[in-house]
Amino acid sequence: MLPGDSSALCHVVTHEPGRLYALGPDLARLLAPNPSPFTGEGTWVHLIGTDRLLVLDPGPVDDAHLDAIVAAVAGRPVDAILVTHTHRDHSPGAAPLAARLGAPVWGCAPLAIPGNQEAGFDPDYAPDRILADGETFAHEGRPLEAVHTPGHTSNHLCFAWGERLFSGDHVMGWSTTVVIPPDGHMGDYMASLQKLQGRPETIYHPAHGEPVEDPQRLLRGLLGHRLQRERQLQRLAAEQPGTLEALTARAYPGLDARLVRAAQATALAHLVTLEEQGRVTRVGATWKA
């Protein structure tokens, strides 16, 4: 999510956590019980397939939630538990669910940031198979492809299956994503959006929010929004150099206090990328253009 968007605090749950919602004959999802200003209604867990399943992003460790996933599987073979990235609302349930279902964990690489591990990361994630960018495997007669989309996190993967893209937190259906340095990188995030513009999938299934039925339009909007924010921060740093806190307050006037730290992280991600491009400089704690 992007702090400052009006949707950022709208996390009223209109779907029932633990209830299975069909999205087609070969796709269903259920909601984890973790609504918040940063997850919307919560994390969607996707069950991909009919006779044999893949379980995508099992979410947090919560006994009732894991029970609901097992009930939704309904005894069908699970070929793998897939993980898009290792934020705590996505990956911690993978290991206990794997033990209950007898399935391996496949997906993104583990992630550690020496000396500066963001509190939101899952340090215990240990996949049985790390999927590389472009790696494919067959699932119910169709290839499923891992698509590396760094930016939100450096290890983020999307998964393409036919006309569908399971977009994790890279492209969401309720708000834009937050990018938190040092692992999150705004330049990588924007490059990953451009990468998806060259792909053929026509519907996105994000981990938060509703399916996206016109993804190319949304991708254009996300890129435009990021470029606008980038130009704004460069202009503000030129008009009146200031600290990250001061620039963020000017860029996000009237921001809800609960979202200030996340807004500062997103602003920092933009400023770091602008610094790498030589468009702003940093002297001590002051940014100027």
UniProtKB/TrEMBL annotation:
It holds the Pfam family Lactamase_B. It comes from the Bacteria. Residues 42-208 form the Metallo-beta-lactamase domain. This is MBL fold metallo-hydrolase.
